[in-house]
Amino acid sequence: MIVVLKPGAKKKEVLKFTVFLEQQGVKVHYSQGASRIVLGLVGDTQGINAEALGAHHLVEKVVRVQEPYKRANRLFHPEDTRIDVPGPDGVIRSIGGVSLGIIAGPCSVENREQILRVAGAVKKAGAGFLRGGAFKPRTSPYSFQGLGCEGLDLLLAAKKETGLPIVTEVMGNHQLEVFEDVDVIQVGTRNMQNFTLLKELGRSRKPILLKRGYACTLTELLMAAEYIMAGGNDRIILCERGIRTFDNFTRNTLDLSAIPALKKQSHLPVIVDPSHATGLAWMVPSMAKAALAAGADGVILEVHNDPENALCDGEQSITPETFTLLMDSLKKYAALEGRSI
Ligand code: PEP
Ligand code: MN
């Protein structure tokens, strides 16, 4: 249930009203809009008399929210959410609102030289964030599983050298203790419904990059975000990374319509991963541009200095040269739309 307050409601009165609402067994989520305060009532709202609430002198209107996700719902937070991430260089990079987030780097961290080279190149081209997997979820147990903690250390070295904040995937709760210096924690497609992990991430205050499960609906993605938000962490970036369909020309099918759909339903920023969506490096630039044209708040791209010999996902990795050219187009596009990279 959403309670929109009249403009100019006094803080003291709002506080008193919030206590009154919470006494009825719901949690109140407070959101200060441009001109109005919006209160989101979460929990069992069955017993609340919406008509009586509507008659309260502070209240402008009461709306029952049909969707099962509340905190992630745009009705609870009409403005776009922007996630600010301070880098070790003191610069704050943002995703959402007018800011486009460009995350680039290899699928997995392979060695010091590789990650430092790619990090330097993507920084030079204008990326805002460095990606790289240290713990890799692979379909086969015999495939390269990532360097683990050593990979994280190398990623941190690249962060120090470039000043770029880092984005890397967590696969289970037990790994979180070594993620202290990670700037954005990624939840991969296979873990989108790992509810134990989502609950733990709700206790974290770090931004979470939440990828859509490859066979999950948009409502399921928003419910996964809701799990994290219910724990008190509302710094979530949603990511469309392709879903499984009958066609296998591409690795997955990029659901571009997910972008306007998610942005209509939710205030959370939405980015796109054209690398995992297509599985084909030659398709990545056009799909990255398409993502921005469809309203995405950024992209996450796999970039490798030697794709042919990459230990993971070489076929879908673009080179630093291609990334640099693509960045030029993305910057032009951003400028046309009045957005910043
Ligand atoms: C990744 O980004 O490295 C990754 C494994 O992505 P996804 O979970 O989307 O497959
Ligand atoms: Mn990959």
Write the SSE topology.
Elements: E1 2-5, H1 11-22, E2 26-32, E3 37-43, H2 50-54, E4 59-63, E5 83-86, E6 92-95, E7 101-105, H3 112-125, E8 129-131, H4 149-162, E9 166-170, E10 184-187, H5 195-203, E11 208-211, H6 218-230, E12 236-240, H7 258-265, E13 270-272, H8 274-278, H9 284-293, E14 298-302, H10 320-336
Summarize the structure.
With 341 residues, the protein is α/β, with parallel strands linked by helices. 31% of the residues lie in helices and 19% in strands. It has 2 domains: 62 residues, Phospho-2-dehydro-3-deoxyheptonate aldolase, domain 1 (Alpha-Beta Plaits, 2-Layer Sandwich); 254 residues, Aldolase class I (TIM Barrel), CATH 3.20.20.
Structural overview:
The chain is of the alpha/beta class. It has two domains: 2-63, Phospho-2-dehydro-3-deoxyheptonate aldolase, domain 1 (Alpha-Beta Plaits), CATH 3.30.70; 83-336, TIM Barrel. The chain is 31% helix and 19% strand. It is built from ten helices and 14 strands. The protein has helices spanning 11-22, 50-54, 112-125, 149-162, 195-203, 218-230, 258-265, 274-278, 284-293, 320-336; strands at 2-5, 26-32, 37-43, 59-63, 83-86, 92-95, 101-105, 129-131, 166-170, 184-187, 208-211, 236-240, 270-272, 298-302. The chain has an eight-stranded parallel sheet. A four-stranded antiparallel sheet has the order 2-3-1-4. Strand 11 (208-211), helix 6 and strand 12 (236-240) form a beta-alpha-beta unit. Helix 5 (195-203) packs across helix 6. The chain is elongated. The protein starts with a strand and ends in a 5-residue tail after the last helix. The mean pLDDT is 95. The structure holds phosphoenolpyruvate (PEP) and manganese (II) ion. Phosphoenolpyruvate binds at residues 107, 133, 137, 169, 188-189, 211, 241, 273, 276.
